[in-house]
Amino acid sequence: MPSKNAIANQFERTSYWCKLSRHVRRMNPICAFIDPAAGEQCTHYSECVHHLIAPQQDWELRATVSNLVALCWKHHPNTEGDDGRNEYAPTREVCVTTGVEILHQHPKGTGRAAIMPTGDEGRQGVAFTLPTKVIDAALDGIESLDLEEF
């Protein structure tokens, strides 16, 4: 049986991951790293997507946007997941079904992916899973999505 690292590496070479990574970078074009000395966000373009909790640690979070941050190569940690020492700007996501913008906060030193976004109503967000067909359609382009077939 392949190791967890081998499986995670295989996943990051799939077309699904390439599309999701490109989508996250399109929604978050600037590196999310916050410089601890200046307290300011990096101004470089995002070039890669980093898992806060590595697929080897929690396979279910491998494609969860709240577990991802878009970074430049300079600020991409050479670690599996994140050690909690870095601070990141929120990851922006637009809900496929409603078009509502969601900002996934990444508080320093927490199990970040478990934190749900807060909606406009000021209450805790609700976690749900979309059908794979919906996610794939979103990654291929919103205009190709026909919600009536779901």
Per-chain topology:
Blueprint lengths: L3 H8 L3 H13 L5 E2 L13 E4 L16 E4 L15 E2 L2 E4 L6 E4 L27 H9 L10
Keywords, please?
globular, 3 helices, 6 strands, single chain, two-stranded antiparallel ribbon, 150 residues, 13% strand
How do you describe this structure in short?
The protein has 150 residues and is α+β, with helices and mostly antiparallel strands. The protein is 20% helix and 13% strand. It contains three helices and six strands; from the N terminus they run H-H-E-E-E-E-E-E-H.
Number of helices: 3
Strand percentage lies at: 5-15%
Provide the structure class.
Answer: alpha+beta
What count of structural domains? 1
Main β-sheet description:
2 strands, antiparallel
The helical percent reads 10-25%
Spell the H/E element sequence: HHEEEEEEH
The CA-CA distance between the termini, in Å, is 36 Å
Nearest-integer average pLDDT: 77
Strand order of the largest sheet: 1-4
Radius of gyration: 16 Å
Residue stretches low in confidence (pLDDT < 50, at least 5 long) are 111-132, 142-147
What sort of overall outline do the alpha carbons produce when their principal axes are compared? globular
Number of strands: 6
Task: Explain what you see.
The protein is of the alpha+beta class and 150 residues long. It has one domain (4-149). It is built from three helices and six strands. Strands 1-4 form a two-stranded antiparallel ribbon. Strand 5 and strand 6 form a beta hairpin. It is globular and about 45 Å long. It starts with a helix and ends in a 10-residue tail after the last helix.
